[in-house]
Amino acid sequence: MRLALALALLLAAANHPADTTHSFRGYAAQNAATEAQWEKKFRDLPDRDRIRENMKRLSARPHHVGSAYDKDNAEWMLAQLKSYGLDAQIETFTTLFPTPKSRLLELQGPAPFKAKLQEPAVAVDPTSSQASEQLPTYNAFSRDGDVTGPVVYVNYGRPEDYEVLDKMGISVKGAIVIARYGASWRGIKPKVAAEHGAVGCIIYSDPEEDGYTQGDVFPAGPMRPPDGAQRGSVMDMPVYPGDPQTPGIGAVEGAKLIPLDQVQTITKIPVLPISYADATPFLKALEGETVPEDWRGALPLTYHIGPSKAQAHLAVSFNWDRKPLYDVVARIPGAKYPDQWIIRGNHHDAWVNGAEDPLSGTSPELEEARALAELLKQGWKPQRTIIYCFWDGEEPALLGSTEWAETHADELKQHAVAYIKSDGNGRGYFRAGGSHSLESFVNEVAKDIDDPETGMNVWKRVRLVDISNAKGKDRDELRSRADLRIPALGSGSDYTVFLDHLGVASVNLGYGGEDEGGQYHSIYDDFYWYTKFQDTDFSYGRALAQTAGTMMMRMADADVLPFQFGNLADTVHLYLTQLKTLATDKRDEIKERNREITEGVYDALKDPKKTLVPPKTEDVPPYLNFAPLEQASDDLTEAAQAYDKALDAAAGNGPAELNTDLLRTERVLTDEKGLPNRPWFQHVLYAPGFYTGYGVKTIPGVREAIEQKRWTEADEQIKRTATALEHEVDLLKQAAKLLPAGSSQ
Ligand SMILES: [Zn+2]
């Protein structure tokens, strides 16, 4: 066995002489060569047929939280991991998970209509008929309610949509609003509607978003059919995700629960998602003015704002039960630094059968774990501890990851190096977002992954695709900057607790852009649909396993953790510039509007046949003091450059204490007081927007204060953010001193 292995290694080296010249950040030259060989062996292992079989098995029946098959899947994955030879276990939590007891939506008046609220089975699609196990269409964490009122159309239901309504003199007080899916996370829609006095909220899938405008509808094509509806959570996750009854602590046995009626994250009004077939009669009943052009969807009707003369009646009630969660966790102990953990995760629960979301990510992750286990048998020993997680309960509220990480918070703060995350995956281009101290690392790894369709590396492909879509300065930058920029992470998946709550550097990755989706959170997101329309031969499932697995290995085996801070400093500088522009724009906008009001612009705009409510004059915002942030940004740039240079000069050689410092570089970017009004969110650079949900707000404390015109708070947050950044500066200086070139400075 040993001889064969040595021979194989020799052969690998002989066949790939280029591998010996590999240079990886944080690796001494010789270790880089060995690492390159192991990684190459690893990337040959993931098997498309095994990924297909994983998906087939896991998607065979509906597997939402609390269902029989959810538990069955967890046990099956545990058995798989053990059969690969890995040390694995299931960690169980119990959390709130409401399911529908009754749902009713009807239109009263001259043309009465009762919504079907049912996605029909499709003959060619074998699992679409598993009605007895399917969760009905509903929005989880909607409150119970029975309300009647006129209907008003609110476009996407974002704060800016209500500004348009205000101008048109339309109030939603006492109304049931109808909002279309898209543009914001769905949970924002009922939240903002309730703030404006609506009594109920219905959310529908307009065909413009993912129906016939985008392509043929299922089963002829992949897109959402007339009766297709999008389930999903509407919990107020920008306040905190996870079990609503145990914020900040793990939902383990004996955990103190806050009473249901005191939970802040359940919606204030009842909510229900519907198909466009069900939405059409409600939209047709709307009267009043026609909507602004960009509010129109793709249905063959004239979109009116409302209100409707006919009343709508919405009644929903739920079983407010606590259900078990099954997180499956496998651990490979590190040989040299067992106390430094690299964590990988993807969820396994789904709304229904969930082939795309999440199994197109889960199935490759399982195959990735098998491939690493195979390498272990061949003699590979990771230097750091590797942890593979398969989360339950992501869909309702990031339950499995949040409760696990809250339970293990102290250990994670001490030991976690990074969290590498995926979710649904598709055919197309490499995409990654995450912590900017890992931006360079993500770029480095992507250059070693072959794109299945073009044969070029996935980094090169996405760079060229981005160039074709970019203009002007952005295009110049794509051509000239060494690394592709990665976007910051908002929320909407399992990295949230790691990055935003604990300050663990995180990366979210996947492939997509060539297949179109179209069945998000529907009963048709299943094996039949996925294997007919999406990554049908699983070559991008394989690419995902290769990419994430390579990241895990390269992070686990590095002599010096491969963080790079020049890109972080560059990004912070960019955010600061944006914030200053935002503050100036806000001031100019208010000044200009005040002037127009005095000039009589709004008197001139009056059309007697339309309603126009003129705005009121506002106080002109004060100048903010950005000096502390400017100073911190400059200091960070200097310290980052010095550290990066010192590491380069050391050619990957550094003392063990250096890793201990590097492990804390994301942690110090948190502020234990958290964001104003939402202390659970502690990262000073990234947070999901309070009014955008999935959408990220960068330097959120400052940005949201400016957007929401809280000027004193903005000045305060500038200081708090600057303080965190100065801690980063100190840490980088300390780290640089541990390197020969850094200590001489
Ligand atoms: Zn998902």
Per DSSP, the total helix count is 25
Rg on CA atoms, Å:
26 Å
Question: Helicity range of the residues?
Answer: 40-55%
Our measurement of the CA-to-CA distance between the termini, rounded to an integer number of angstroms, reads 50 Å
Average pLDDT works out at 95
| Unreliable residue stretches | 1-20
- What form results from the Cα inertia axes? globular
**What order do the strands of the largest sheet run in, or round the barrel if closed?**
1-11-13-12-14-16-15
- Largest β sheet strand count, sense and barrel closure: 7 strands, mixed
The portion of residues forming beta strands comes to 15-25%
Task: Please identify the structural class as seen in this structure.
Answer: alpha/beta
Distinct bound molecules: zinc ion
**Using DSSP, what is the number of strands?**
18
